[in-house]
Amino acid sequence: MTILTFTLILLAGAYLAGLAGSLTGLGGGVVIIPLLTLFFHVDIRYAIGAALVASIATSSGSASAYVKEGITNVRLGMFLEIATTVGAVAGAIIAVYTPVNTVAIVFGVMLIFSASMTLRKKNEQILTEGSRMSDILKLNSTYPSPEGPVPYKLKHIGRGFSVMTIAGVLSGLLGIGSGALKVLAMDTAMRVPFRVSTTTSNFMVGVTAAASAVVYLQRGYIDPGIAFPVVIGVLAGAITGSKILMKINVNALKLIFSIAITLIAINMIYNGFNHKF
Amino acid sequence: MKAQIKKKLTDYDMQQLIGQVLRVGVILSGTIAGIGGIWYLFQQGSGTPHYGTFTGEPAGFTSLTGIYKGILTGSAAEIIQLGVVILIATPIIRIIFSLFSFILEKDGLYVIITLIVLSVILFSMFGGLKV
């Protein structure tokens, strides 16, 4: 295989990864790592570098629209970024002392968790009573809807902050956005309305990934020959995804995708235990 | 323009600004990486990829001075890396813009919160974590 064919196949794969990631809300990075390691037999460290860059690209690309529409809670994102960036830097340090096969196993477990998260019910309930902490930190806000702005309040800020730290560590260690954990922290613990939590999580992924990407860039994990087809492919896929998202029924797609992701995850865990990385 | 600055900056203005910063960053980095990528395929497209074993990237790809020197010699890979660096810088620049917005909004609490996030990233950049 020449570099030209490698690039073209990777470009197509990254496009599909970006498309699937955008339609299911998992993000592009989650699919990029198995694609590179299992299919192209690329070393997982290069795959992590490429996935980080892909996460930043999709996060920044889609966040720009959501922020302008006022759905994203910028203050909530900013506050929780303390947790995710500290976690991400810790994750990047832990990565040095973690054997690559262990990284692959942790990645597989995280993948199964993410897949199951896409199938769970959304948080539609909106709190009218928030906690004192939420008030002090000015996290209560509104989001736009066809019927005008909807006000919402939050609680369990400390619990959400702790889960965010774990999300940051995993993001720094595995090179993914850990969107699933971020949504878990915001939806389940802090009771952030679903539309706000997904867009705010997306908004935070860029900063979280950048916090560890600066380390991985210096460590030489980010290869230009892998990075450019991945970034362009994932971005193009995410754009297509956002255009067709409203027109198709994603529920069936989410189910198929979750099953596929789980099989990939089992494959990664199996290979990890057999020291194939 | 001046009348706009004098007017009190609102959350709405900040949202538009942040959204714009992110969009420009992605378009700029994507374009540079794309141009570098096409050129890279012309230069090295017929070679064989060797990503199965991790060797780490040479210094030319991992530091700004290395990337700058590479671009001067006309190497396409460094142009891609420049695009990647701009992409990584985009969320960081977004934080800096948020910081100024919070200062103009006189939101002291969020000025501090934003400064903390910025220092964590700067520590990550210059903290010698590359090992």
TrEMBL record, chain A:
Family: Belongs to the 4-toluene sulfonate uptake permease (TSUP) (TC 2.A.102) family.
Keyword Transmembrane attributed: yes
Name used for this protein in its record: Probable membrane transporter protein
Record localization: Cell membrane
One Pfam family cited in the UniProt record for this chain: TauE
Entry keyword set: Cell membrane, Membrane, Transmembrane, Transmembrane helix, Transport
Highest taxon of the lineage: Bacteria
Residues annotated as transmembrane: 46-67, 161-181, 201-218, 225-246, 252-273
Keyword Membrane: yes
A single GO cellular-component term on record: plasma membrane
Membrane protein topology class: Multi-pass membrane protein
Lineage: Bacteria, Pseudomonadati, Bacteroidota, Sphingobacteriia, Sphingobacteriales
UniProtKB/TrEMBL annotation, chain B:
Transmembrane segments: 21-42, 79-97, 109-129
Pfam family, one: DUF1634
Keywords per UniProt: Membrane, Transmembrane, Transmembrane helix
Superkingdom of the organism of origin: Bacteria
InterPro entries: DUF1634
Name listed for the protein in its UniProt record: Membrane protein
Source organism of the structure: Pedobacter antarcticus 4BY
